[in-house]
């Protein structure tokens, strides 16, 4: 008798304290759940073993990446329905040990164990970062983490990012604008906030595939040093610089930001890089950039932020993101970022939240990935493509629901007399 799906619906309802808001289709062909709702496809018993051995988000992530779990229906709708059971559970939710004191929960776990079959734990998908993740942020560990995320293949990123090759939040004139226009406008916004002028020196920290460096040199006549820890990014960026005829204006280095010693610079851009720095190293990061600037020099720090927790000591890094996307990545509240920049000696002059812009950007990236799915799978792997699809879709919803934000913080190194060189009227920039 094919009855795995109704059994799973009942067991999950016992575990979660409420029925699942999606249908389930199990490996035996059975289905159960709300009619017309998106369907969670449980392809095999191994999916259950993954959940039993790693309860919570990591077990779900492993099952998704391995293809043991899938979704039949709109991905965003399904993730939105499941959010309350996965990403938005109350901070004070019971621990597993506390939950297992409940006889009903223990009975549900026994039911899942029986349904899962063999008790042996499945091996994690090969796309999972295997190195120890203690968030030490040494130069070696940061280099390894950056390689895991960015050295997936430039051709793969071309599918997702499009011709602009900008891997950070775009700045949309309107929701129906093109991704290329929105990324151009973001780069131009950064240049205007920095007040770039011909002949100045710009340091682009975490320069990626060179888009900011090329835009600043071509459109504003500055000399740029771009640094990245990714060999693949650097090779791609150097070719783009040469193709643009800008080798006399742009230098791309494979270099840790802590090793840059050739200041002073007139301006520094850090776009989507500071998430990799880590809370323990953030003051070192901010102080180092402050020292590299001339008096009157500006920093534009573009960074994703999480919401503050009622108990910051209880904050933990997202298991899926840490294992599959950004090993050692850490998000901080925007207030903590501003405080660290000020401790380093900066005067913070402007903070602009562009949260809704990142949701629009991510939805475009997901659409591009889905449109080029077969080629993406060939270039990376089925598991890697599934990682990016889930990560970007879930992140789009997180920005839309205000679980995370993204901010551009403009700061200046004032002179000894306190002069900032900033315009009198805010947001004219130059």
TrEMBL record:
The record's EC number reads 2.1.1.79
Annotated Gene3D superfamilies: Vaccinia Virus protein VP39
Organism superkingdom: Bacteria
Segments carrying the region annotation (Disordered) are: 117-142
Keyword terms: Lipid metabolism, Methyltransferase, S-adenosyl-L-methionine, Transferase
Q: Which GO terms describe its molecular function?
A: cyclopropane-fatty-acyl-phospholipid synthase activity
User: Sorted alphabetically, which SMART domains does this protein's record hold?
Assistant: PKS_MT
Pfam families found in the cross-reference section? CMAS
Q: Indicate whether Ribosomal protein appears among the record's keywords.
A: no
Please indicate if the UniProt record lists Acetylation as a keyword: no
Q: Which GO terms describe its biological process?
A: lipid biosynthetic process; methylation
The record's annotation in InterPro entries points to: CFA/CMAS (IPR050723), CMAS (IPR003333), MeTfrase_dom (IPR020803), SAM-dependent_MTases_sf (IPR029063)
The Polyketide synthase-like methyltransferase domain sits at 156-397
- What residue spans carry the Basic residues bias annotation? 132-142
Q: Which family does it belong to?
A: Belongs to the CFA/CMAS family.
Q: What name appears for this protein in its UniProt entry?
A: Cyclopropane-fatty-acyl-phospholipid synthase
Source organism of the structure: Streptomyces chartreusis NRRL 3882
């Amino acid at each position: 008798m094919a009855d795995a799906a109704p059994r799973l619906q009942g067991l999950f309802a016992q575990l979660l304290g409420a029925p699942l808001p999606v249908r389930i289709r199990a490996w035996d062909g059975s289905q159960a759940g709300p009619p017309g709702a998106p369907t969670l496809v449980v392809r095999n018993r191994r999916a259950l073993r993954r959940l039993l051995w790693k309860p919570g988000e990591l077990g779900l992530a492993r099952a998704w990446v391995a293809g043991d779990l899938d979704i039949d229906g709109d991905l965003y709708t399904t993730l939105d329905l499941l959010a309350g059971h996965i990403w938005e559970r109350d901070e004070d939710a019971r621990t597993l040990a506390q939950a297992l004191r409940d006889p009903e929960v223990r009975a549900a776990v026994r039911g899942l164990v029986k349904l899962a079959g063999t008790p042996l734990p499945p091996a994690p998908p090969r796309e999972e970062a295997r190195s120890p993740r203690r968030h030490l942020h040494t130069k070696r560990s940061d280099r390894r983490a950056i390689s895991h995320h960015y050295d997936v293949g430039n051709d793969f990123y071309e599918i997702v990012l499009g011709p602009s090759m900008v891997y950070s939040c775009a700045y949309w004139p309107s929701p129906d604008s093109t991704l290329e226009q929105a990324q151009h406008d973001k780069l131009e916004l950064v240049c205007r906030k920095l007040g770039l002028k011909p002949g100045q020196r710009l340091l682009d920290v975490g320069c990626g595939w060179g888009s900011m460096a090329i835009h600043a040199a071509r459109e504003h006549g500055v000399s740029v040093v771009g640094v990245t820890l990714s060999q693949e990014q650097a090779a791609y960026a150097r070719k783009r610089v040469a193709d643009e005829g800008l080798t006399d204006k742009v230098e791309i280095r494979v270099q840790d930001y802590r090793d840059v010693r050739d200041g002073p610079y007139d301006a520094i851009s850090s776009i989507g890089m500071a998430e990799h720095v880590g809370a323990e190293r953030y003051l070192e990061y901010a102080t180092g950039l402050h020292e590299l600037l001339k008096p009157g020099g500006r920093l534009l720090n573009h960074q994703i932020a999480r919401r503050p927790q009622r108990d910051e000591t209880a904050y933990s890094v997202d298991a899926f993101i840490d294992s599959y996307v950004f090993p050692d990545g850490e998000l901080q509240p925007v207030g903590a970022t501003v405080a660290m920049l000020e401790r380093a000696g900066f005067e913070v002059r402007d903070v602009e939240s562009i949260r809704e812009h990142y949701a629009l950007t991510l939805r475009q990236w997901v659409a591009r990935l889905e449109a080029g799915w077969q080629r993406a799978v060939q270039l990376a792997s089925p598991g890697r493509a599934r990682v990016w699809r889930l990560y970007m879709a879930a992140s789009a919803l997180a920005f839309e629901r205000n679980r995370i934000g993204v901010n551009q913080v403009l700061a200046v190194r004032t002179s000894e007399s306190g002069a900032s060189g900033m315009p009198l009227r805010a947001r004219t920039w130059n």
